[in-house]
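I need you to check the entry underneath: sequence plus fold tokens. Let me know what the token row says about the fold.

>
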Amino acid sequence: MNTPETELGPPRKCADRRMTNGRSWPCLHPGEVHIWKAFLDGSTYERDRALLSAEEADRAARYHFAQGRMRFVAGRALLRTILGGYLDRPPAELAFSHGPYGKPWLVQDEQEERLHFNVSHAGPVALFAVTKEGELGIDIERIREIHDWAAIANGCFSPQERTHLRRLPDSRRRPAFFQAWTRREALLKASGDGLTGESAGWPHAPDAGYSVQSLVPVPGYLATLACAFPAPRTVFLTWLGAPASTASATVELPNMLS
């Protein structure tokens, strides 16, 4: 596994680009990955829903519980808003397609520089990773008690990871388990396989050729970013406000795990 020394820093502004609400938008330079953190609860449902496609609205309607439905709508609206900001395009006009195992990709004009993105959420916390460099995957999980962790580890983790987990005391095993789990999920998502692809049943996700970094985006949560290109300069931003509202972003440097 490659564990890069990640270059952290604030986003550089694009002097000739503005958000539609008049706020400057961070410029995504070559060699960078922007990771946006957002909290999905408390958004304006009807305004967010107006940004979605008919297919997304239909998916939202199939949620049995209101909380899950509202979080899905907020997440899709925010993804559209973020990508639309980089492309200077209205969020509602964006179109998406999917790879053979369900990984979404953005339909773009030939003259546009291609954006690669990936999304993950755990409860109300969502992460959106965006780059121009190539394929990437991100995964976030809330640290919690997993009673059958050994059975899951036997089916998903490498022998080295399983041995490491067994040797840890309970207080350290829980975060170590989720660090290994998010790493596996991020690698599978970066490869395009996800949970249903050819690599999903492997005892561990292949990491050859990938740069991997683990981070703590919020206390009590762990995340991993996997990139199919050399270690990027990573810019972390927090979205403030509901996706369809007048909002701004702040820059932060989360805790990194070695």
